[in-house]
């Protein structure tokens, strides 16, 4: 099985209306916490916040927001060393509380310990490590060139924090997708308010306790709650909003941000295609597609949403994927089934279970053929990995982002046919191509558009912190990860320095004499 390093499912289905949900299980033994780690303790009584009126919540939002605004100048002037210290403290506190995190995720969303480590915790540690190594260089003002018409001056780009940021995170990877943007907000010198999803209440409660144990509230704070809390937060004039969720709700966030001319990073989603050419290594492609699709029960926004496979190799690919599903299901002991293996997660809640089941029912009612899978257990929110053939465009699963373990398969005869089909759809967050010919790869890249692409791989482009991650148009606005995450929370401030008494522009000051006009004409020719 391909190793799942930082899989950040950057999309949730229905966020502000229903918010977020996830899952996971108890995990492998954690490292011994360092001496300066903060260990937090959770009891079941702390997992359900005391009910408060929206007026009380709004008043508390006002208080915290004002405190963070008052702290903006201090945070903007913190050094790289101070910011790195905060990031290292965050990692230390996470390490000291892994068991509580695993318990919370298990209660919210059944998932194997290894998958939790790989998909929730490891990506955050990777972002912290990379940021700590690069932050001094990122913060350093960048000298830029000087055009001839302003010769004698010097110019630099300074990176200053935008101020107070709002981070709204989804349910599918609730820990990862809350703290990954926070890493970059801290690196940029921002204060931040976090809004995790109420669909994963145990994880959200853990996030609250972790943040309180790590940061003062005038630097980082958390507000749990439903859409009413999100709406109260969106009414504030934040300096930047980082939202991960569906395209429909990204529009809601963007409209709210427009009221205050607040900049946004929108990590959205869409239907990410996999194109499989006839000359590919079928076994290799089957390994990677199966893993990329069914990780987290398909609830990953860069998961393959549907397959476009060359007609000549379609049957080979389907058989190979079926074999991988069966092999992955056997578990560590080798005698599990997909229903019993601890390595296969569940749908986050009954509402999303019913949504995905309705996609399956609609497809079969309209002539779709279930090649493998199709089993459901309603009381467990379980839907097996399911391959569906003979799909048509009137089926809902070909119109909506699936965000679950259903994998439709279509065929093509030429690559142009495949790329033309992709081009008829909204631009996806990710696109995957499997094929051995360089000219075919270049053809696909030139004739499609996507937020990111992996060639002969799925998901893995997201793991490189030197690559920008994000969508395009319907699948997102703005980029994150590495330097791109740092700049998302930074104002790139243009600074020109001129010596006193020296400027070439004096030659074009009024009055506009014939000599000045002649000089302007010369400038126009340069």
Describe the model.
With 526 residues, the chain is α/β, with parallel strands linked by helices. It folds into 2 domains: 44-269 and 479-490, Aldehyde Dehydrogenase, Chain A, domain 1 (3-Layer(aba) Sandwich), CATH 3.40.605.10; 273-470, 3-Layer(aba) Sandwich (Aldehyde Dehydrogenase, Chain A, domain 2). Helix content is 39%, strand content 15%. The chain is built from 16 helices and 18 strands. The strands form 4 sheets. The chain has a 7-stranded mixed beta sheet with strand order 10-13-14-9-8-15-16, sandwiched between helices. Strands 5-4-3-6-7-17 form a 6-stranded mixed beta sheet, with helices on both faces. The longest helix has 27 residues, at 113-139. The model is unreliable at 1-35 and 42-51 (pLDDT under 50).
Summarize the structure.
The protein has 526 residues and is of the alpha/beta class. It has helices at 54-70, 72-76, 80-96, 98-108, 113-139, 176-188, 201-214, 227-234, 247-258, 282-294, 314-329, 350-365, 415-423, 438-446, 482-488, 514-525, and strands at 142-144, 154-161, 164-168, 191-195, 220-222, 240-244, 263-267, 273-276, 306-310, 369-372, 376-377, 382-383, 386-389, 406-412, 430-434, 452-455, 476-477, 490-497.
């Amino acid at each position: 099985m391909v190793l799942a390093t930082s899989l950040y499912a950057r999309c949730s289905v229905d966020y502000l209306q229903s918010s977020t949900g996830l899952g996971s299980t108890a995990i492998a033994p954690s490292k011994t916490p360092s001496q300066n780690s903060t260990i937090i303790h959770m009891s079941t009584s702390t997992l359900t916040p005391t009910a408060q009126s929206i007026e009380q919540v709004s008043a508390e939002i006002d208080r915290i927001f004002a405190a963070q605004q008052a702290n903006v100048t201090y945070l903007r002037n913190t050094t790289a060393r101070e910011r790195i210290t905060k990031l290292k403290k965050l990692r230390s506190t996470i390490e000291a509380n892994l068991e509580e995190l695993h318990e919370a995720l298990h209660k919210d969303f059944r998932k194997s310990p290894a998958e939790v480590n790989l998909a929730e915790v490891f990506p955050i540690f990777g972002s912290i490590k990379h940021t700590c190594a690069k932050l001094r260089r990122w913060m350093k003002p960048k000298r830029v060139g000087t055009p001839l018409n302003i010769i004698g001056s010097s110019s630099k780009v300074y990176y200053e924090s935008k101020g107070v940021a709002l981070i709204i995170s989804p349910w599918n990877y609730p820990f990862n997708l809350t703290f990954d943007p926070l890493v970059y907000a801290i690196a940029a010198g921002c204060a931040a308010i976090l809004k995790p999803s109420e669909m994963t209440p145990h994880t959200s409660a853990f996030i609250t306790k972790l943040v309180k144990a790590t940061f003062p509230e005038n630097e980082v704070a958390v507000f749990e709650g439903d859409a009413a809390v999100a709406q109260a937060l969106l009414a504030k004039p934040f300096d930047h909003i980082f939202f991960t969720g569906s395209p429909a709700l990204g529009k809601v966030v963007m409209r709210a941000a427009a009221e205050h001319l607040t900049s946004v990073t929108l990590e959205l989603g869409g239907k990410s295609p996999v194109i499989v050419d006839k000359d590919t290594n079928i076994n290799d492609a089957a390994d990677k597609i199966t893993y990329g699709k069914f990780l987290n029960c398909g609830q990953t926004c860069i998961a393959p949403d549907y397959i476009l496979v060359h007609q000549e190799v379609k049957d080979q690919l389907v058989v190979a994927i079926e074999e991988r599903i069966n092999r992955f299901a056997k578990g560590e002991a080798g005698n599990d089934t997909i229903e019993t293996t601890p390595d296969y997660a569940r749908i986050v809640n009954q509402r999303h279970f019913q949504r995905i089941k309705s996609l399956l029912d609609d497809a079969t009612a309209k002539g779709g053929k279930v090649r493998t899978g199709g089993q459901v257990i309603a009381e467990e929110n379980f839907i097996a990995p399911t391959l569906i053939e003979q799909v048509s465009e009137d089926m809902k699963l070909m119109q909506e982002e699936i965000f679950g373990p259903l994998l439709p398969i279509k065929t093509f005869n030429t690559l142009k046919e495949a790329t033309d089909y992709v081009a008829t759809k909204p631009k996806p967050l990710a696109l995957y191509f499997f094929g051995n010919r360089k000219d075919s790869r270049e053809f696909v890249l030139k004739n499609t558009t996507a937020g990111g692409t992996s060639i002969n791989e799925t998901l893995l482009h997201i793991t490189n912190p030197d690559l920008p991650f994000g969508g395009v148009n319907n699948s997102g606005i703005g980029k994150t990860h590495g330097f791109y995450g740092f700049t998302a929370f930074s104002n790139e401030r243009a600074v020109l320095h001129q010596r006193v008494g020296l400027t070439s522009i004096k030659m074009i000051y009024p009055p506009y004499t014939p000599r000045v006009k002649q000089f302007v004409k010369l400038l126009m020719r340069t």
